[in-house]
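[stage:ingest] chain + small molecule (1-deoxynojirimycin)
[stage:ingest] validated
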Amino acid sequence: MKLAVLLCSALAVCHGAEVKQSRKFPNYFVFGVGTAAYQIEGAWNEDGKGENIWDYLTHTNPSAIVDQSNGDIACDSYHNYKRDIEMLRELGVSVYRFSVSWSRILPEGLSYYINEAGITYYNNLIDELLKYNIQPMITIYHWDLPQRLQELGGFMNPLIADWFEDYARIVFKTFGDRVKFFATFNEPSEICSGYGSLGKAPMLNETGFGDYLCARNLLLAHAKAYHLYNDEFRPTQGGVIGFILAVSSTEPLTDSEEDKFAVELYSQATWGIYTDPIYSKEGGFPKELVERVAAKSAAQGYSRSRLPDFSEEEKAFILGTSDFFGVNHYSGSYVSQTLYTSQHAIPSALDDIEMGTYAPDEWLQSASSWFQLMPNSVHIFLKLINARYPGVRIYITENGWSSREGIVDEDRVNYYRSALEGVLDALDEGINVHGYLAWSLMDNFEWMAGYSERFGLYEVDFNDPNRTRTPRKSAFIYKNIMKTRMVDHDYEPESYVMTIDEGH
Ligand code: NOJ
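[stage:predict] done
[stage:export] tokens:
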């Protein structure tokens, strides 16, 4: 141990990173990494897989993707999954979060025809993980809706709740004997942005309408799958099932009461709309948001609010349907209604709340235009969640940094170190965080950004038919954090050759 650390510990008066080095993650805290099917698997039409909305979008409208690429091959994990698991062993993770591709299992989306080859792929993946004591966490839906269901309206059709329930039943029935950790939906806000903007497939762009309708239908679908697991599978399988939200960090622009309320309203519109119905005391959509959308809708001449509310029965059905709060976190900003500009689409969610955000220029910019490094952002968002739902059990299901192509990733190294210090700060305050999954195991298809933005601990060479994976420095740093269960800011890898430690 360095002299400075010893002195600091003895005096207990130092600030900054060094004194914090002695803090350890508790034993119950799990570490891992995540990926998602469309982003890594490739084999888009192999062995009976059906078309999904990302296959359709990238093939019919390639210019929607920054580099006109697609996930046809991606990391080719359909063929390389054993190498992926070798990387998980190299890192020494205890949890691997991956998603199941709906159209690989049900090519038409509906449950009348099951593609056995798809089942075999996931069975092999799960068995290989368990062989090395790595706990699988399945995301049942990570944005890749079967195209056939989209043609029937997708998340605009209330029947999505039944279709999703049927699909989830197959997932529980087939994999639930070995998988004990499920999440229904990944980032509902992004799923619904596919209906309320041009930001994701299927690019419906029904702003301030499609996104709200989607929120309603998606929550009912989630609740159906939760009840199904709870009633029919949990008694024999004994696992947990939750929901995964995107939560950014927000602080008021000034100390004014208006700006403090702006944080609340912004939280309601960006994530509370999905979480209050599940985790709040009374259930239902957030009160002020409901009032604002109703008032704006009326002023715009609509005879009903564009945010269709739940019946009392539906509210009760959704309330409490999650065993944990899964959260993906990246960016942060200041918020204020004084930052509102009339440039938002009308109608739209941001126009409904008349809100604007601001990220100072000095904040480090990642390769993703939407992602700036807000100081202490991990600690801030954990406090936001805990303040809203005191004591809720939290798993950070995604967190990481985006860079451009290339092996050098000093910014990612710094990002992970300070993010994990933020988790330790939250743990010190008694916030109930139980795990951290880095995003991502390796570079992959970053949706509208194609391969132009890289989130991987391992770099993937997309020009190489073998899709060779090479560990970046951040892989060694994260490995050391998991192994020592501490954040050592001075640690430097002895070499850049990855090996599998004993016991993995
Ligand atoms: C959240 C999404 O779940 C994931 O698919 C995406 O790659 C990351 N954010 C980074 O944008």
